[in-house]
Design a protein that fits this description.
Largest sheet: 7 strands, mixed
Number of strands: 13
Radius of gyration: 29 Å
Order of helices and strands: EEHEEEEHEHHHHHHEHEEHEHEHEHHHH
Length: about 475
């Protein structure tokens, strides 16, 4: 019933521009607008051609509310595949809300967050992965995220999943037919052929799965923990990368007591989520100990560690403790404060910390900006190495996509085990169907209503 109702919402941010847009979608979108819109030529909008713009006034009880442009788009060639009207009015909050209320009083209801895109999905205009790409485009923080989302919106992921599901369904259909009619359909050699196909599908799915971490980084940014002992220059590094004074910097050790986050954009278009942490050392201060524990927790969440080592102070037990914590993580070691000790010997560091011998080490000065460009280039090369380009490459950007792919791979593996154990063929069909349905969840086939509603709640009003 709700999908048959005509919905309306403000589709632009309030008070930030000279123009606002009220979007209306549904069977009665045009007739509702006809009741409140007076065109200069008096022409009825219902008889207007689709995708035309009309100039006039929004009226209520004989009074002009605002001078507007009205865009008419008729089903099915619209975003929602329903009739859509967009009213372009002046951008003031009062006039925009007034027009929206007039629309609602004349038969529309207020749209829920994401309901326009939800209708596009329910009406077959978009699959679920494309709908998720819409919200990712809106929230894109860098060029890589934007281009990746655009590729997903264009249907690259959908086409890949549909092709794999089609191949699985062909084998499943043949198997079911053979089980139903064994006298006319022979299964000789079927198991060997199915095993080969499963191997091929699994390789393709594992390749997709391998893009999940890169896809998350494209969408969210590189979680980067800045680690070091107290007063090593961690907060100075955060301020240098952020281009502003975000953290307090003093000569007093232990200034940072909590994890301070800042999102920045590198020149190469990559987002970093910087986490400035408390200095790791032995402390009896209760508040400082909590900060140190949070710093250690940040290590496990991080995609990248920036270990700030103070060359002017030399080695300490705290540095040794940090080195042990980070040896299994991607790490860049910044040999900080070289402006205070230019004759620093890199070999001394490698002798003291052999477990970090292969880690990237950059002579650095957070105070003077020495080594900043080298650091930025190194981060870009570590994560992308030129592999991410604006082409047709597919990346999994959502945790639920990754989970569905993993479930499909596990189901296909179960089929292979059944084949290896010479189980009856009807066992194959159960796991093949599980794989088929797991992949279907990515594009919205056989997906629960609760999941659909949860996804569209991420959207803003009017989208």
């Amino acid at each position: 019933m709700k999908q048959k109702e005509t919905i309306a919402a403000i589709a632009t941010a309030m008070g930030t521009a000279g123009i606002s847009i009220i979007r209306i979608s549904g069977k009665d979108a045009i007739s509702i607008t006809d009741r409140i819109f007076k065109a200069k030529n008096q022409k009825c909008l219902a008889f207007s051609k689709s995708h035309t713009i009309h100039y006039g006034y929004i009226m209520e009880e004989g009074y002009k509310i605002d001078e507007v442009l009205v865009l008419i788009m008729k089903a099915p060639n619209t975003y929602t595949k329903e009739n859509i009207v967009e009213i372009d009015c002046h951008g003031g909050a009062m006039v925009t809300n007034r027009i929206l209320q007039v629309v609602i009083r004349n038969g529309a209801r207020l749209a829920e967050p994401g309901e326009f895109t939800k209708r596009a999905f329910l009406n077959g205009r978009l699959d679920l992965s494309q709908a998720e790409a819409v919200i990712d485009i809106i929230h894109a923080e860098n060029e890589y995220a934007l281009q990746s989302s655009m590729q997903q919106l264009s249907g690259n992921l959908r086409r890949k999943i549909e092709e794999l599901r089609k191949q699985i369904l062909l084998e499943l259909s043949f198997l079911e037919a053979a089980l139903d009619d064994p006298e006319h359909i022979c299964l000789d050699g079927f198991s060997e052929k199915l095993s080969e196909n499963i191997e091929k599908w699994s390789i393709e799915l594992k390749k997709l799965l391998s893009t999940a971490d890169t896809g998350r980084i494209l969408r969210e940014g590189v979680k980067t923990a800045i680690i070091g002992k107290p007063n090593a220059g961690k907060s100075s590094l955060l301020n240098l990368l952020a281009g502003q004074e975000r953290a307090i910097v003093t000569e007093i050790a232990g200034t940072t007591r909590d994890v301070l986050e800042e999102q920045i954009l590198l020149q190469g278009g990559l987002s970093l989520i910087l986490m400035d942490t408390a200095g790791i050392h032995n402390s009896s201060d209760q508040v400082e100990k909590i900060g140190i524990e949070k710093a250690k927790a940040s290590l496990y969440q991080a995609d990248l560690i920036l270990f700030v080592f103070d060359v002017s102070k030399g080695f300490s037990e705290e540095d040794k403790q940090i080195a042990e914590l980070i040896e299994q993580k991607p790490v860049i070691i910044l040999l900080n404060k070289i402006d205070l000790k230019e004759e620093w010997n890199l070999e001394d560091f490698e002798i003291k910390f052999p477990n970090l011998k292969d880690a990237v080490k950059i002579p650095f000065s957070a105070k003077k900006g020495i080594g900043l460009e080298q650091l930025q280039q190194r981060i870009l090369s570590m994560f992308y190495q030129g592999a991410v380009s604006y082409n047709n490459e597919i990346f999994l950007t959502r945790a639920r996509h990754k989970e569905s792919i993993e479930n499909a791979i596990n189901s296909l593996f179960a089929v292979k085990e059944s084949i290896a154990c010479h189980m009856p063929e009807d066992f194959f069909s159960i796991d093949l169907m599980d794989a088929y349905e797991a992949l279907g969840k990515i594009i919205g086939e056989a997906v629960e209503d609760d999941l659909v509603n949860t996804i569209f709640k991420e959207f803003c009003m009017g989208k």
